[in-house]
Amino acid sequence: PTMAHSKALLVLENFIGGKFVPCSSYIDSYNPSTGDVYCRVPDSGKEEVEAAVKAAKDAFPIWSSKSPLERSQILNKLADLIEHDLEEFAQAESKDQGKTITFARTVDIPRAVHNFRFFASSILHHVTECSEMPAMGCVHYTSRAPVGVAGLISPWNLPLYLLTWKIAPAIACGNTVVAKPSEMTSVTAWMMCKLLEKAGVPPGVVNVVFGTGARAGEALVCHPDVPLISFTGSTRTAQRITERSAPHCKRLSLELGGKNPAIIFDDADLSQCIPTTVRSSFANQGEICLCTSRIFVQRGIYSEFLKKFVAEAKKWKTGNPSDPTIDVGALISKEHLEKVRTYVKKAQAEGARVLCGEGVDPLAVPPGNQKGYFMLPTVIVEVKDESCCMQEEIFGPVTCVVAFDTEEEVIRRANGVKYGLAATVWSGNVGRVHRVAHRLQSGLVWTNCWLVRDLNLPFGGMKASGIGREGAKDSYEFFTEVKTITIKH
Ligand code: NAD
């Protein structure tokens, strides 16, 4: 690894076959809270991907023949090493992504550590099936084996968190991997590579190629020796990946976007619901696939809800992400900030009203952050269900609040988008929450809470929000190939 001190730029290198290797060309990576270029990321293409796949293929026979216990011990060691450097990782993630240091310290990096520990443990507990046919004198059983080289492609919003959510199960199952993090947030993946050798991960088991989706990502998706691709990102990219991988009939896991509703019935406990819904709307600048962006409030409590919700949203402080008292950091890029702002303008042009945030309240950031990509938590009302703000994923600190009357109506409206990732339901009526949860087209439904996860259980979306699920059993099934064996005695 090199630091080009002359320009004070951080220069990343690919990690292939256990070694850091420079690349012939680089792309700039920005610090979203200042607008400055501070890092150079390899612009890898076919050649680099080819070398990484070869290293992963070469490492597969040895890694796949290790016992789950041996692999588990290595994953635990890696978790310990990341945890030891937690503060350094958190600082890097905050600087690279724009998220607050508090979020990186309490969510991103602890979860990356936990991902390795979780799969280090879960890999020890799987059993396969067996069925007997005494009349035929036969016994059948299943056996599971790692598939080979897994291609892992991850987005910029939760960089190390989501990358390790793929690397951990893939290598725990005995696969080797070639990972391609987002070109906008590559630093923590590179830092993790520096710890692999010390953790005991053999060379070639984890390879990381940095670069854009169009070059490095596609080269991985199209590589004939990569039989499975685990992708988290936008629905549009997933369509492209599906097309490009189709000639090879690759196994795909696709975790995509959302347009997540919160449904708030008139018997909801607002003292819990309001702070949680502000959090579910604006956490990580609204840049979480699970963030709430459509809030349906039953008419009887609509005005009260709105007043309290806006008051709570205004308490969220936007500013320098490295300040631990800040709640909202910078958005990922200038282009993304423009895109999010455009949604607010479109809503206003359609007659919607902005109650707080963008264009309504003054945005004050410290002098050093004037060129950063900041936006205040923004609440929009009087917006039609057909509006692009109610249909498309905005992926920023913007949420729409609308009123509804009946349970039947709100289920229909909540389901009336192309996505189906996560929903929240707020009510004290146990019968109602079960009924509504069953009828929502959503891979996850949280009742009277948000973002409470048990990694054992399936995670993933319906409709345009994805294909496949991740979790203890689900990731194990995705990252292994099953065989049914019949023995006649
Ligand atoms: P994106 O689709 O633009 O990029 C994701 C990754 O794919 C990046 O690494 C990118 O370089 C790569 N990529 C782009 N084009 C590619 C191509 N043609 N071939 C191969 N790889 C390619 O998404 P993003 O903007 O980085 O992330 C935001 C999106 O991710 C949002 O839609 C969000 O909802 C979604 N997301 C989903 C989940 C989930 O678990 N469901 C989690 C986080 C984010």
TrEMBL record:
Question: What residues does the Aldehyde dehydrogenase domain cover?
Answer: 25-485
Q: In which pathway does it act?
A: Amino-acid degradation; L-kynurenine degradation
For this UniProt entry, what is the primary localization, expressed as one broad class?
Answer: cytoplasm
Name the active site residues: 255
Keywords in UniProt for this one?
A: Cytoplasm, NAD, Oxidoreductase
**Which domain of life, per UniProt?**
Eukaryota
Tell whether Oxidoreductase is among the UniProt keywords: yes
Q: Which family does it belong to?
A: Belongs to the aldehyde dehydrogenase family.
- Which PANTHER family does the record cross-reference, listed alphabetically? 2-AMINOMUCONIC SEMIALDEHYDE DEHYDROGENASE
Function description: Catalyzes the NAD-dependent oxidation of 2-aminomuconic semialdehyde of the kynurenine metabolic pathway in L-tryptophan degradation.
The protein in question is named: 2-aminomuconic semialdehyde dehydrogenase
